[in-house]
Amino acid sequence: MRPLAVIGNVNVDLIVGPVAPWPKAGTETVVDHDDLRVGGQAGNTALAWQALEIDFEIAANLGDDQFGRWLREAFGPRAERWPVRPEGTTLSVGMTHPDGERTFFTTRGHLPRFSLADVLAVLDGGRLSGGYALLCGSFLTDDLAHDYDAFFDWADTHRIAVVLDTGWPIDGWTPANCIAARRWLSRCELALFNEVETTTLAGLENPAEAARKIRDGMKKGATVVVKRGPDGAIAIGADDQLIDVPAPGVNVVDTIGAGDVFNAAFLAALAQERPLTGCLSAAIQVASRAISTLPRDYGGRMFFEEAINERA
Asked: What are phi and psi of 196, to 5 degrees?
């Protein structure tokens, strides 16, 4: 199996809900559910890998408070060398809605100060040689994003394939953010975006056409995956063939982090050098199970292996 790493945002999520209708200013609303948990794109991906019993490395930073110490404990030895910033830990408060959607309020916290030096203090390029590194939370980790070119150079030197999932920009897909994302994608072997991100970034309504346009601006032989929620996912690989895998019908409980769980299962299958169809199947099955269970259940290693082989 090829080595795996994730680099990006680990923060605290406080999830409450469901909330309906949206409360008026000055009022108080009682909700049925609350959950304080590890969050952020990198955090969610790492939790899924842990649950699937996949070996991996993770580079992140921490805030200097009780939440930062709690996050370090959650990842044990993998977080021993994570740098600590003097800022408080980034906190996301998520309000869930009856239809499974959510609204987030996020503090800036420690994430903007996550740097390239922090990454290189944690990851060993030699150990990751020939593997995949998922770069995520791009628009929250300001210092690292500023040095992305140097990171790509480091990855190229060690023959590490970079996978990009920027997440949604805080200020939306402005022209400047689109230009930045396309520049980053030009150095990447794999893109993992959701449908709205894909079509917005490409400026095309059709997700397959948008994926092809994005792929044209990436490295030769790159793959673009488009996560489509209840419609499953599509992918266009090096052979330029469109692969479309549907999602099972499930009773949605909590969609928070669904795309990150998808990323984790997809890359775990890819690291085993499974066919693209099997990678999509595994990702969809694991993510579908995760969003339909409370407390969240990823299915474990056996479920993951069965999902890979379903469309082998």
From this structure: -65, -40
Please report, for residues 32, 86, 93, 257, 261, the alpha-carbon distance to residue 96 in angstroms, rounded to integers and kept in the order given. 11, 31, 10, 12, 18
Q: Tokens 């970034």 label which residue?
A: 201
Q: What is the pLDDT of residue 307?
A: 86
pLDDT grade for 100, boundaries at 50, 70 and 90: low
Rounded CA gap, 305 and 309, in Å?
A: 6
For the domain that residue 182 is a member of, what is the CATH number? 3.40.1190.20
Cis amide prior to 295 (ω within 30 degrees)? yes
pLDDT at residue 50 tops 70: yes
Token pair in block for residue 36: 């304080």
The closest of 7, 304, 294, 45 to 143, measured between CA atoms, is: 7
How is the chain split among helix, strand and coil, in percent rounded to 5? 40, 20, 40
How many contiguous H segments (helices) and E segments (strands) does the chain have? Answer: 12, 14
Query: Rounded to an integer, what distance in angstroms lies between the CA atom of residue 108 and that of residue 101?
Result: 22
Check pLDDT > 90 for residue 237: yes
Domain count, the chain: 1
Residue 22 pLDDT:
86
Confidence grade of residue 220 (pLDDT, cut at 50, 70, 90): very high
Decide if pLDDT at 312 tops 70: no
Length of the chain: 312
Which domain, by its residues, includes 39? Answer: 4-310
What's the CA gap between 278 and 263, in Å, rounded? Answer: 13
SS3 at position 273: coil
CA distances from 237 to 80, 98, 212, 279 (A): 37, 36, 9, 12
Whether the predicted model's global pTM rises above the 0.85 cut = yes
* φ, ψ (nearest 5 deg) of residue 37: -150, 165
Mean pLDDT of 153-157: 98
